[in-house]
Design goal:
Blueprint (H helix, E strand, L loop, with lengths): L4 E10 L2 E11 L4 E5 L6 H8 L7 E6 L8 H4 L2 E4 L11 H11 L5 H10 L13 H14 L4 E5 L7 H18 L2 E5 L3 H7 L2 E6 L2 E7 H6 L1 E7 H4 L7 E10 L6 E11 L11 E4 L2 H13 L12
Length: 307
């Protein structure tokens, strides 16, 4: 099956700054892919390239089997919602639907009306008077009613309160399911990614640090707790990614010489019987470990450290 997004040695340079470097990706169809990484990692650049808003400096990128924005028909197959949920402040909600119908030959008016009702959006209200959550819902409605094969979201819920973010993600999943579309969601909020995404891409310093199905990535990593010298002697094929939780002496507040917990890339069976404890790794621990390694850090403690 053709990937919805495929890149080969993709690079993007702004002057002397390399936003993306030799990015090789195959984003599968039928999935909701989470795109995570610190600010400046290249996430927005990658999505802008995918939408045809900018051109690569090197390498290639194909979206739905063709160059990005290959023509009007190709543009209609991709829906895009940017971080600020761009809408026209002076137009009403109904005006947005009329404009969408005029610009998109595959426009699904019934779907748009269902989305409005589901979001409690009054067609008469001007977009400039909507709340941030309502604007995001309107932008999602317009993108989904094109009936695209790929939906691209660049931090669409970044400025929303928790309740509005929860509702937006619910509607995102409903729209993807109703359309049978693939989606790429760029987000700083790892709980959001864990909730809605089944494929993951981790970017840092313009390079891919980790990519794959979430279930496979979690199954291929474990948390290992043991003495530092034991972790240094893990079996061949086990790779320590980044220590994430050094044990501490509660009385002195200083690191103790013995146990440390680290994210390790390995099959659990490979570590059976060793002088260490093994447990499942969570998505946040996994992402922070790979981001920490990319940054040269040893003890990332929060997603906030990587914004």
């Amino acid at each position: 099956m053709t990937p919805v997004l495929e890149t080969v040695r993709l690079g993007k340079r702004y002057g002397r700054h390399h936003a993306l470097v030799d990015v090789d990706l195959n984003v599968p169809s039928g999935r909701v892919t989470g795109l995570v990484g610190p600010n400046g990692a290249g996430k927005s650049t990658l999505l802008q390239l995918a939408c045809g808003l900018t051109a690569p400096s090197s390498g290639t990128i194909r979206v739905l089997g063709a160059p990005p924005a290959a023509g009007p028909a190709h543009l209609a197959r991709v829906g895009f919602v940017a971080q600020d949920a761009p809408v026209y402040a002076d137009l009403s909600v109904a005006d947005h639907l009329r404009l969408g119908a005029r610009l998109n030959p595959g426009w699904d008016e019934a779907l748009a009306r269902r989305r409005l009702a589901r979001s409690d959006l009054d067609p008469r209200h001007r977009a400039g008077r909507l709340s941030g959550g309502q604007r995001a819902q309107l932008a999602l409605t317009v993108a989904a009613a094109k009936r695209p094969e790929l939906l691209i979201f660049d931090e669409p819920a970044a400025a929303l309160d928790p309740l509005a973010r929860h509702a937006f993600l619910d509607h995102l999943l409903e729209s993807v399911g109703e359309l049978g579309a693939a989606a790429v969601l760029s987000s700083h909020a790892l709980p959001d990614v864990a909730r809605v995404c089944d494929h993951l891409i981790v970017l840092a310093d313009g390079r891919v640090q980790l990519a794959g199905d979430v279930a496979d990535l979690l199954a291929g990593h474990v948390l290992v707790t043991g003495r530092r010298r034991d972790l240094a002697g893990l079996p061949a094929g086990a790779e320590v990614i980044t220590p994430v939780e050094p044990a501490r002496d509660d009385t002195a507040g200083a690191p103790v010489a013995a146990p440390v917990t680290a994210v390790v890339r390995a099959d659990r069976s490979l570590l059976a019987g060793g002088p260490w404890a093994v447990r499942d790794v969570g998505l946040e621990e996994l992402v922070l470990a790979h981001l920490g390694r990319a940054a040269g850090a040893t003890t990332p403690t929060s997603v906030e450290d990587h914004r």
